[in-house]
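Weekly structure sync, notes
Attendees: PL, DS, HV (note-taker this week)

Item 1: CRP/FNR family transcriptional regulator
DS walked through the input record. Source organism listed as Pararhizobium capsulatum DSM 1112. Sequence as pasted into the shared doc:
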Amino acid sequence: MTRIDIHNSQTPALCQSCEIRHKGMCGALDADELLALSRHTRQVRHEAGAQLSSEDTPITSYANVMRGVVKLTKMLEDGRQQVVGLQFAPDFVGRMYGSNSDVSVEAASNVELCRVPRAALEQLVADNPKLERRLMEQTLRELDEARGWMVTLGRKTAAEKVASFLYLIATHISPQDDAGAAEFDLPLSRADIADFLGLTIETVSRQMTKLRTSGVITIIANRHILVPDLARLKARCS
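Item 1 (cont.): predicted structure, written out as tokens:
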């Protein structure tokens, strides 16, 4: 797999400044391929709560998450909403080769995306086996994570579910210091966390309070979380 020096003059300026370029699908591209792709891409920012696409709408573009958290939801026939997934940098947003979206996509936090038209990316994938492999690897990683989350939802207690959710967020969006601590803003409301975990809002709040009381987490202004020791939080996950 070809890696590109960030100072390579042939590499597009936007790509040079991208923090997740080597981790996402673009890590499979050389300078010329990045240049070709950059002619079609555009970086966009969305505020928390913005609807990025709706269920059953035609797929016209794909995106890489550069920063922030994206929420995937499904609507039940009776109008209830279920959070079915979260995506973080450098996850790929969109279902390759699908005609319509099977989920609704929303900015759970303020997000930055690198968006590319569907036709342009699918042509590049057809011409580049390395890119196809990278996207397949990302898809399989997300599948593995989804299967792991099924265990959380199906077998863990309420306390373990809430701890697992906090550990998921901490390890995906918070830079960890040498002491193993993490600090982050919750990208979901208590209601969304409850939907995601299959719990009630009251149960989520009660379990968060227990974690705070035992010193596993500190809660500041309701949504800001400090984890002094990630190992202690991880131990509460099972």
